[in-house]
Amino acid sequence: MTDENINLTPEEEDNIVELTDEDGVVSKFEYLTTISHEGEEYVVLMVLDEDGNEPEGDDGEVVILQIEQDENGEDIYVSVEDDDVSQAGEA
Fold first, then answer.
1. How far is CA 32 from CA 14, 43, 81, in A?
2. What does pTM read for this prediction?
3. DSSP secondary structure string, the chain?
C-alpha cells in the first residue's frame, strides 16, 4: 500500500472491513484495534486472504493506518511510512 488515502467500508461480518486503494483494488482485513500514538489515532488491521480468512500459522500480516479527516470531515485512512509508528504497534 502506498501513502494514499484509502476508503474503509465495514461489511456485515464481525470486524471485517474492505479497503479500496487508489487503484480500485479491494482487499479484506480484520479490524483488531484503534490505538493512539503521540496525539494521533491509528487503526490496526490484519490482512486476510482472498477468501476473507485469516492466514494459516504465523503468516499473519498487520497493517497500521493513520486516521485523518478529509475536507468534508469524513474519516479517511492513510498508510503509515513512519518506522516509529509501525514499531509502536508491535509493542
1. 11, 8, 19
2. 0.68
3. --SSEEEEEE-SSTTEEEEE-TT--EEEEEEEEEEEETTEEEEEEEE--TTS-PPSTT---EEEEEEEE-TTS-EEEEE---HHHHHHHH-
The mean pLDDT of 7-19, rounded to a whole number, is: 66
Q: Name the phi and psi angles at 39, rounded to 5.
A: 80, 0
Q: Is residue 16 within 8 Å of residue 48, measured between CB atoms?
A: yes
* pLDDT at residue number 1: 43
Of 33, 30, 25, the closest CA to residue 11 belongs to: 30
Confidence band of 18 (pLDDT split at 50, 70, 90) = confident
CA separation for the pair 83, 66 (Å, rounded):
13
d(CA 4, CA 91): 25
